[in-house]
Amino acid sequence: MAPGDEATSLPAYAERLTWLEALEAETPQEQRGRRLLVRGWAALWPKVLAVAIVLAVWQLIHVSGWKKEIFPGPGGTLADLWDQLHTSLLWHAIGTTAERAVIGFGLAVVIGAVIGALVSRIAPLRSAVGSLITGLQTLPSIAWFPFAIILFGINTTAILFVIVLGAAPSIANGLIAGVDYTPPLLLRAGKMMGLSRLSLYRHLILPASLPAFVAGLRQGWAFAWRSLMAGELLVIIANQPSLGVLLSTDQDQADMQGATSIIIVILILGILVHTLFGLADRAIRRRWGLTGTV
Amino acid sequence: MVRQGNAMTVTGQRPAVEPGKGEATGTVRLTRVSKVFGRGSSAVQALDHISLEVPPGEFTCLIGASGCGKSTLLALAAGLEQPTAGEVSVSGRVALMFQEPALFPWLTAAGNVELALRARGAGRAERRQRAAELLETVHLSGFGGKRPHELSGGMRQRVALARALAQDADVLLMDEPFGALDAMTRDLLHDELDRVCAGRQLTIIFVTHNVREAVRLGDRVVLLSSRPGRVIGEFAVPIAHPRRIDSAPVAELAGRITDRLRGEMSHGTR
Predict the structure, then answer these.
(1) Do B167 and A208 touch (CB under 8 A)?
(2) Which of A186, A187, A193 is the best mutation test for B, with the most CBs of B within 10 A?
(3) Which residues in A lie closer than 8 A to residue B116 (C-beta atoms)?
(4) Residue B1 pLDDT > 90
(5) Mean pLDDT, residues B89-117
(6) Shortest Cα distance from B12 to chain A (angstroms)?
(7) Which residues from chain A sit within 8 angstroms of residue B109, using beta carbons?
(8) Do A199 and B118 make contact, defined as CB atoms within 8 angstroms?
(9) Residue A5 pLDDT more than 50?
(10) What is the number of other CB atoms lying within 10 angstroms of the CB of residue B60?
(11) Which of A81, A239, B64, B207 has the smallest set of CB atoms within 10 Å of its CB?
């Protein structure tokens, strides 16, 4: 460092010092806010980058001129999506679809949990229907639609019926797995405490099954969402716009941009719900001390 | 509480005292108990005609090499296993502590203790108050809101001790409860256990493979042989409390017991 620099660098140093002091003077809440911001950005940028790469590849294909007449570019599609977001039709459709998803999945959770609870505790029932549940889980739920439509007609009940058949087996299996994998040591501890059969179930086996149950819910949701989309494409009810109906209309009108926009909406909704399950899973893991970083 | 093996129960002589009847609360009695796991050629005899009586309030340490059926013996006394032959009689309530704390990870430290109190039928307010008292007894007041994973190994085992005490048992069975802890923490927990026992009429059967630990804690040390487990010796521990694990009398008796064990083991493998 040249001798003359000292004079100029000193104020800079003092400035930095005050900046550091200011940093230290931050209230814990401000520090917390900053930390959240840093952590949020750390979680966000890979996702942003991934979306950017997808858009870039998409644009490249579009520019390359492959099926130029019908293959839309990201610009046109996103503009179309933006326009659709300003129509009440899309929101109406999202509302209908979301309502069916909530009701169908809710029914599947209740039915799946009851079946799982019964099957996991009653041995003859398990040997009777245990493998049937796994069989139903692997059966593509779309195969049920002819059955459901003949049984219920072209209506929402048919769609809900298939959602339940698609999702409930996974949910039941999740609970059964959770009960089966309750650590034997904890069971012994609970028995030694003198917990009655019922409170053993309520205070030990059920909480111990929670992580596996949430995993089952997550898988069940994926099946429910698929069944719902298949249902909305097959069971088209007049005057009830849903995402499936919009997709179907776009197909009839060969509106590729519109169809792609709806696919993006469906994708985003699916990811959103999946993220919620991920958050629940993380919360449980943190509570139980199963994460590497606490 | 009397449990009988399904095969050849107490052939010939009857036990001197009718077990379970008129016996002081806190007595543990095993009469010619055998336990065989498996059948046919793969059968393993874990215990072979073991007789052991622990009077109320006594601290008995069971010691032996691994595979001598120590844990099986505790499981029999706890009622988790049934004897193949012979009779197990325990008068009073039994609590069991494992080598692992076996705490429920979804509950806080206080919640774990409270669940044991709930099993005893305690009401909400009583549960809360008793749990706080018990955590204080094991020097963990202020940690009631922590979850098991937030506590150290020694602290977790203290919570397990508080939970065992919450069961208000007359007999406490301990299966190598400090086996997984470091020497310093173990030393601290020995003092803790002494202190906790001092104020209670508690029969303790403590299984360990650490001879010094047995002498440090027990009123009596019972030696078991390996495969099948048999009682091969008994040592009274006439050392005054408070004891230290590294004091001369403890070391001296532990040395004698170790020699005896060594002799038995070489005898067994000859």
Answers:
(1) no
(2) A193
(3) 193
(4) no
(5) 91
(6) 33
(7) none
(8) yes
(9) no
(10) 23
(11) A239
Q: Rounded to 5 degrees, what are φ and ψ at B141?
A: -65, 140
Side chain identity at B1, as an amino acid letter?
M
| Strand, helix or coil for residue B209 | coil
**B37 beta partners:** B44
**Residues of chain A with C-beta less than 8 angstroms from the C-beta of B96:** 188-189, 192
What is the token pair recorded at B24? 């002081």
The dihedral formed by the CA atoms of A119, A122, A123 and A125, expressed in degrees to the nearest 10:
-50
A194–B120: do the CB atoms touch at under 8 Å?
yes
Q: How far apart are CA A39 and CA A29, in angstroms?
A: 15
Q: Do B245 and B216 form a contact (C-beta atoms < 8 A)? A: yes
Tell me the CA end-to-end span of chain A in Å, nearest whole number. 45
Measure in Å the smallest separation between the Cα of B159 and chain A Cα atoms.
13
Nearest residue of chain B to residue A199 (CA atoms): B119
Q: What is the pLDDT of residue A17?
A: 57
For residue A193, list chain B residues with Cβ-Cβ distance below 8 A: 115-116, 119, 163, 167
Helix (H, G, I), strand (E, B) or coil at A142: helix
Residue A112 phi/psi, 5-degree rounding, is -60, -40
Residues A217, A207: contact at Cβ < 8 Å? no
Q: Identify which of A199, A202, A194 has the alpha carbon closest to the alpha carbon of residue B167.
A: A194
Average pLDDT over residues B190-203: 85
ipTM for the predicted complex: 0.80
Burial of B7: CB neighbours in 10 Å, binned 0-12, 13-18, 19+: exposed
Which residue among A199, A203, A289 sits closest to B147, beta carbon to beta carbon?
A: A289
Q: Give per-residue pLDDT as tens, B205-251.
A: 999 888 889 888 888 999 887 777 778 888 888 888 888 888 888 88
Which residues numbered 30-89 in B keep a CB inside 8 Å of some CB on A? Answer: 78, 80
Distance CA B205, CA B194 (A): 14
For chain A, domains (ranges, CATH) are 88-288 (1.10.3720.10)
Structural domains in chain B plus CATH codes = 1-9+25-38+55-93+169-270 (3.40.50.300), 106-168 (no CATH)
Handedness of CA A202, B147, A31, A292 (dihedral sign): negative
